[in-house]
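Q: what sequence does this backbone want?
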């Protein structure tokens, strides 16, 4: 059936057919860099990183652009409060954002343009809009005239006539219509400014995304993403500016992710009653994590407690269009699920002598062609793989896909158990080869989600030295057992257990692991 995507513009799922295949352009609105990233800032980048990975796996050639807004009201205010130069604050916060993306393995972004580096392109776009009669000057400001764009409201499905009542519209006596929005703002004292045909000033927020997306992806491109809270006015305004300027459709598919909010806030209003229902924007907006509500969880703080991979896995465990219920407990619960994968990778290495991370996954989607005599097991693997791909084809349903990864993990463990692959079965080459083929599928599918790209880094408390000390005690215990000193062997096991280290005696020797929290 091919890939289907839910398009906010048409409010339905549509077959994904790029404008200019095999090329695909994706633009996702990035952060205004005025405060360290909170968890909500990571949702869009993780999702669009996976969408890019999946589309490339499906043989498209994808360009992903995420912008950085480094001139905006909130940033100017924050810099004034901190008595810090705007540029310095923007750079510091942008570096924090990039660092967090690296930790979450968001590494497929091709361009991260900044507004202040695209002022010329922004000015040209505004000049074009004025000369075509879609924008007007007023006291050094420039406004877009919404009455000249009859389709205004088509993305958010709002009636332009009703927009006057819109609470999120900035009032200004200079506007001809209350829904008109600023393309250029005249300089105020102490604000950053650039020369323009309308005097010194700075761009409005909306116009920068039109200028930067068209610069990298052309006048019509495939996917525009962002949080659900950006549909109106930000994305509505991007469409108006861009289409009024080019006379062409701006974006084919609009994909909006649900907002992240604190789980207990949800419980308070009883919205958990129907978790399957897609909630409307207003409710998500009321609950979302934001600085103004004082309910933010800073990513760099959270990453002291959990790894970037755990946070990535957590974000992908909800389908992208749904709101994500955040709590530290839920993140840790997801982290415990990940431990099951890490434990299997160790088991796989014990059986095959090969690291899971050395398996070379196919880069492109193709048929799974199992070989050997273990057809029943490999058919099970094949059907799980089909289900995974079907879930991803269905509007990138990573939540369902992750569920299927757990099913595949269980199938691999069952197969290893049933055939005693850590004991006598290990010499059965046909069975070990089948396990290897099944595990390669796990590697392939996890790769599409950007998971298990490299071995997890132990946190400081479980540094390399700790691991070597634990191994030393495990070796001493083995010696004690061989000398029939069971009292000492038991004491070592018990006291390691108190420290959260679990020993498992296996046919090939004792292995240890950290207990689940
Ligand atoms: Zn934007």
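A:
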């Amino acid at each position: 059936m091919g890939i289907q995507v839910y398009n906010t513009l048409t409010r339905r799922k549509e077959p994904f057919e790029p404008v200019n295949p095999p090329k695909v352009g994706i633009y996702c609105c990035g952060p205004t860099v005025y405060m360290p990233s909170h968890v909500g800032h990571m949702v869009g980048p993780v999702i669009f990183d996976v969408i890019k990975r999946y589309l490339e796996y499906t043989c498209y050639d994808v360009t992903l652009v995420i912008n950085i807004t480094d001139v905006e009201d909130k940033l100017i205010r924050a810099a004034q409060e901190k008595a810090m130069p705007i540029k310095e604050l923007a750079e510091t916060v942008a570096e924090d954002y990039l660092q967090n993306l690296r930790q979450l393995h968001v590494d497929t972004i091709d361009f991260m343009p900044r507004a202040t580096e695209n002022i010329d392109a922004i000015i040209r776009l505004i000049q074009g809009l004025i000369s075509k009669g879609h924008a007007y000057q007023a006291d050094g400001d420039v406004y877009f005239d919404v009455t000249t764009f009859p389709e205004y409201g088509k993305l958010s499905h709002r009636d332009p006539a009703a927009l006057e009542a819109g609470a999120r519209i900035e009032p200004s006596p200079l506007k001809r219509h209350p829904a008109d929005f600023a393309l250029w703002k005249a300089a105020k004292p102490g604000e950053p400014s650039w020369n323009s045909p309308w005097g010194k000033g700075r761009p409005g927020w909306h116009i920068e995304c039109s200028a930067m997306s068209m610069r990298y992806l052309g006048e019509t491109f495939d996917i525009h993403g962002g949080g659900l809270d950006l549909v109106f006015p930000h994305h509505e305004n991007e469409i108006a500016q861009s289409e009024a300027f080019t006379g062409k459709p701006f974006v084919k598919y609009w994909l909006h992710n649900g907002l992240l909010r604190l789980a207990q806030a949800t419980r308070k209003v009883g919205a958990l009653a129907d978790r399957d229902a897609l909630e409307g924007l207003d409710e998500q907006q009321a609950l979302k994590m934001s600085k103004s509500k004082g309910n933010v969880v800073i990513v760099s703080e959270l990453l002291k407690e959990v790894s970037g991979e755990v946070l990535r896995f957590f974000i992908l465990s909800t389908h992208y269009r749904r709101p994500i219920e955040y709590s530290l407990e839920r993140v840790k619960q997801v982290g415990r699920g990940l431990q099951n994968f890490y434990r299997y990778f160790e088991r796989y290495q014990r059986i095959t002598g090969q690291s899971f991370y050395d398996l070379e996954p196919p880069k492109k989607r193709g048929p799974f062609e199992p070989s050997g005599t273990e057809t029943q097991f490999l058919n099970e693997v094949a059907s799980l793989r089909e289900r995974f791909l079907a879930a991803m084809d269905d509007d990138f349903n990573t939540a369902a896909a992750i569920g299927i990864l757990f099913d595949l993990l269980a199938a691999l463990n069952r197969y290893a158990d049933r055939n005693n692959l850590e004991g006598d079965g290990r010499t059965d080459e046909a069975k070990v080869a089948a396990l290897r083929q099944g595990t390669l599928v796990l590697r392939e599918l996890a790769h599409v989600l950007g998971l298990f790209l490299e071995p997890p880094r132990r946190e400081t408390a479980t540094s390399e030295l700790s691991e070597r000390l634990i191994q030393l005690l495990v070796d001493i215990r083995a010696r004690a057992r061989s000398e029939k000193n069971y009292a000492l062997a038991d004491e070592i096991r018990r006291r390691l257990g108190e420290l959260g280290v679990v020993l498992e005696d296996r046919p090939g020797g004792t292995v240890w692991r950290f207990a689940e929290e």
